[in-house]
Design brief:
mainly alpha; 7 helices; DUF3606; 2 domains; DUF3606 domain-containing protein; 139 residues
Length: 139
């Protein structure tokens, strides 16, 4: 949808034209947001409908239940993996181990990280060596 209602091609559907009131109304209703939020999203990420939808999903995630990690949602896995700086597989394993609570998963991942650091530092501790004393010759 651009400025001409008779144009209905793929390129026209892929863009959001804020200058057209019917487009603002359509996209606001489709994305379940206010026109002001739509305008802010378009300003932030551009006129691409796909980018705006992804941005809105991310914003809704941030506003929704932050304490729960839903591993069935790919955008949630991506978000929490980046947040905890782990791979998606590690995140899913942590959720399986301690549950869906983001606090519990964060604590679990932090414990594992500190345990690894402690293990590495323990294996790299220098051993005490004795110095050989040289005998001084008395003249």
């Amino acid at each position: 949808m651009a400025d001409n209602r008779k144009k209905r091609g793929g390129a026209d559907r892929g863009l959001i034209a804020l200058s057209e009131p019917y487009e603002v109304a359509y996209w606001s209703k489709k994305l379940k947001i206010t026109p002001a939020e739509l305008k802010a999203a378009v300003k932030k990420v551009g006129h691409s409908a796909r980018n705006v939808e992804a941005y809105i999903k991310l914003q809704k995630h941030k506003a929704s239940d932050r304490a729960r990690i839903a591993v069935s949602q790919p955008y949630e896995v991506s978000y929490w993996s980046k947040k905890f700086k782990v791979t998606p597989a590690r995140l899913k394993a942590a959720v399986a181990a301690v549950g869906h609570s983001s606090k519990a998963v964060g604590a679990h991942l932090a414990r594992r990280k500190t345990a690894k650091k402690a293990k590495k530092s323990a294996s790299k501790t220098p051993r005490k060596t004795t110095k050989k004393r040289s005998k001084k010759k008395a003249a």
